[in-house]
Amino acid sequence: MNVLIAGFGGQGILFAGRFLAHIGLSDGLEVSWLPSYGPEMRGGTANCSVILSEERIGSPIVGRPDTLVVMNMPSLDKYEQSVLPGGMLITDSTLVSRKPERNDIAFHTVPATRLASENGISKLANMIITGMLLRQSGLCGLERAEQVMRGIIPEKRKDLIALNMRAIALGYAFQ
Q: Distance of CA 130 to CAs 60, 104, 155, 170, Å?
């Protein structure tokens, strides 16, 4: 699985990618996680390449993702054409106002930013859209996601596990 997650700095793009990478690690897969962000960070551009493979990974760069997750319009405009035919695109429909121009990829949308705001977890739209990704890709279920989350949240921040899992469950269940 070659995933590119893109949006603005401050949306949790890098954490979502790190979470996916840890799912792969816990499954014994070869994993690559490559964050990238503009010099202004918060509010600037951010993206993250994640590769999960049973084979050795030759390069950490995902130029042609089979899965693209976008959390803003500039990211859709920039990366839509890079998705491999037959791949998958997931967007945050709160911030992405158009559907893809392509018809050779699976398209899923979730109003992640709106759902996060309505549920009092405004900083966790990234995990809502990640929940949608987990369900649509079949990467793992909620129980497995929680095991991985418990492994990556530091002991002093354990209170964040329940909030993150609530966000993932919202995205996972969204129709």
A: 20, 22, 22, 10
